[in-house]
């Protein structure tokens, strides 16, 4: 759920967008401090993003979706360090999502506000 440039401990600040496009969801945004994403054994992540519109209630705009790590459009930008330690092998990564398409069935418990 953590993102740069916002107070990400509050889910209402999430800016990563999850938009419906037919039978898929399209994800665009940036996350950081994503624990374990740099591990070769990590095959899938649970991403929290915004599915609600500007009119959606503040606390009913976030959804979670399953995203396979090998989906086109995912870039592991860099490992992030804490006090000079990169915490290998699981690590903490900054991740960029650019037009990442996942099946509509990957949404967990349905779209927020729906």
Automatic annotation (TrEMBL):
Matches recorded under InterPro entries: Acyl-CoA_dehydrogenase, Acyl-CoA_Oxase/DH_mid-dom, Acyl-CoA_Oxase/DH_mid-dom_sf, AcylCoA_DH/oxidase_NM_dom_sf
Cofactors, names only: FAD
Domain of life (superkingdom): Eukaryota
Transmembrane is among the record's keywords: no
Domain Acyl-CoA oxidase/dehydrogenase middle residues, every copy: 1-100
Keywords: FAD, Flavoprotein, Oxidoreductase
GO MF annotation terms: acyl-CoA dehydrogenase activity
GO cellular component terms attached to this protein's record: cytoplasm
GO biological process, one term: fatty acid beta-oxidation using acyl-CoA dehydrogenase
Signal peptide location: none
Similarity annotation: Belongs to the acyl-CoA dehydrogenase family.
Protein name: ACAD11 protein
Lineage start: Eukaryota, Sar, Alveolata, Dinophyceae, Suessiales
